[in-house]
UniProtKB/TrEMBL annotation:
Domain GH3 C-terminal: 387-492
Name of the protein in question: GH3 auxin-responsive promoter
GO molecular function: acid-amino acid ligase activity
InterPro entries with a match to the protein in the record: GH3 (IPR004993), GH3_C (IPR055378), GH3_M (IPR055377)
Cellular compartments per GO CC: cytoplasm
Pfam families: GH3, GH3_C, GH3_M
Domain GH3 middle span(s) in chain numbering: 295-361
Length: 506
């Protein structure tokens, strides 16, 4: 009998009973009050009169009236650059031991402060995720198995008074001692910076591990599984890890990868979606009968919602300072919102770059629908990444292919705008009928796109190419593995360079 696993499962049940879901509005008010109280004597808190905000009749409204909305560039240029120069008490008390590096998909390079309070919050959010496993009807012995977390290198970069790395590497370098016996690939392999070398070592060590759970971005997890299978001459990954039962995904939507991913398995896994960013652990899926994630409301992050409409956004995809901004109480279901966060890392009314939709307000559950700058609206298409992903699932079924990556751009052809798609798939398909079907599907599901097609958007083209070319581009121009994501929407010049590169590989 799996005695230890049974004890862990009972402990999770008790923890879940003690820590029931908080009242959303009250929890968020308390989080904001705690943020303002702790940061009131920082340079940012003094500049924006946090003490007066706390003394006001309605601190939430006062906070929204006084503190401006920030994107990364504004917060860095106005405040965070002082942190990198060694100053303290800038946007959060004390200094920062870590900075999370992010190539991102909306900015070329970011250095985001990661405070001790944020690391503590990430650990607590991780415990909430573990506690929610009681809802997924997993056997007791699952809780004795190892967890393979495929992230960035834990070998961080030393810079003067701080260390730098991707958030997954920083988090893995600060795992609690009790968890390290469960953690794979282990610190030694996790410290390897070269992606190919790291995956090779994982494939070599795989037979000695008893993996029950995987965690990481879908594209890189899939590439790793393929290497383990090939190196060990397996049919499926369950031949070597028979107790694998759970995959915790995040970073991008999993559905486009499901078909190719499940070919590597002997049986389906339990899929759990999470929302861990360089700025914090925002949400996690807490129940099996939905793919939505519950916002983590009582752990150092205050959420705000900006209706994703033309009047609230400028031409660069930033929230306007006079935009209408809602609290969680005020937001409505099934609407696209730009997400703002204020956190224990000293981000204030910060535009994280994602758009989300509340799918269940009572449970505070959301879906990520896209990126503010990965939203195609050059000539009125108003296409979100969520809609693109939905369409790609239809194309997979219609053309019997596996679409793992794609990118689209509005480009000029013969003086008129067209949408050009590059599709990364497992086999070749004629681009002309693919483009026609994709165009028809988007017209059917998006009325704004349909209007654009009758006016300013004069055509749709598509090329279906081997998905490996996307990854080769990522390796050369970004990097492989870690938190690196393939952009879904590119500006015209970037797209033409990308197109030229992938064609050079043919």
């Amino acid at each position: 009998m799996a005695v230890i696993g049974e004890l862990i499962r009972k402990a999770i049940d008790v923890y879940g009973f003690i820590t029931s879901d908080p009242d959303p509005a009250q929890a968020q008010r308390e989080v904001l009050q705690n943020l303002l109280t702790k940061a009131k004597l920082t340079a940012f808190g003094k500049k924006h009169n946090f003490s007066e905000i706390l003394a006001s009749a309605d601190p939430v409204k006062a906070f929204q009236q006084v503190v401006p909305v920030h994107d990364y560039d504004k917060l860095y240029n106005d405040w965070w650059h002082y942190l990198l120069e060694g100053h303290q008490n800038v946007t959060w008390p004390g200094g920062q031991q870590y900075f999370a590096l992010s190539s991102g998909t909306t900015s070329n390079s970011k250095s985001i402060p990661v405070t001790d309070d944020m690391l503590d919050a990430i650990r607590k959010s991780g415990l909430q995720q573990v506690a929610s496993l009681k809802n997924f009807d997993l056997p007791a012995d699952f809780f004795e198995k190892q967890i393979l977390m495929l992230g960035s290198s834990v070998s961080l970069i030393q810079k003067d008074d701080h260390e730098e790395g991707e958030i997954s590497g920083i988090s893995a370098a600060n795992l609690p001692t009790w968890f390290r016996s469960f953690y794979k690939p282990g610190v030694e392999i996790a410290a390897i910076k070269d992606w190919d070398e790291k995956v090779r070592r994982i494939a070599e060590e795989a037979p000695s591990w008893d993996i029950g759970s995987l965690s990481g971005i879908p594209s890189w997890i899939e590439m790793m599984l393929k290497e383990v299978i090939a190196h060990n001459k397996l049919n499926t990954i369950h031949d070597i890890w028979p107790n694998l039962q759970v995959y915790t995904t995040g970073g991008v939507a999993f559905e486009p990868y499901r078909k190719s991913f499940e070919k590597l398995l002997a049986r389906p896994l339990t899929y759990i979606d999470t929302y861990l960013t360089s700025e914090g652990y925002l949400a996690t899926q807490k129940r099996p009968d939905t793919s939505s994630m519950a916002l983590i409301l009582d752990n150092g992050i205050f959420f705000e919602f900006v209706p994703f409409t033309d009047e609230n956004m400028d031409e660069d995809g930033r929230v306007k300072q006079d935009a209408k901004v809602l609290t969680l109480e005020e937001a409505e279901e099934n609407q696209d919102y730009v997400l703002l966060i204020s956190t224990v890392s000293g981000t204030w009314r910060y535009m994280i770059g994602d758009t989300v939709m509340l799918t269940d307000k009572q449970r505070s559950e959301i879906k990520i629908t896209g990126r503010t700058k990965h939203f195609l609206n050059v000539v009125g298409e108003q296409l979100s990444v969520y809609q693109m992903n939905q369409a790609m699932q239809k194309m997979q079924k219609q053309f019997d292919i596996e679409i793992q990556e794609f990118v689209v751009s509005a480009i000029r052809k013969d003086g008129e705008y067209i949408n050009k798609w590059m599709i990364g798939a497992d086999k070749q398909v004629d681009g002309q009928p693919f483009a026609a079907s994709l165009d028809s599907e988007l017209c059917e599901t998006n009325k704004n796109y349909k209007v654009a097609r009758s006016k300013s958007l004069k055509g749709v083209e598509a090329e279906v190419i081997p998905v490996e070319r996307f990854y080769r581009w990522s390796e050369e121009y970004k990097k492989l593995g870690g938190q690196t994501k393939i952009p879904r929407v590119m500006k015209e010049d970037d797209f033409l360079e990308f197109e030229q590169y992938v064609k050079s590989l043919s």
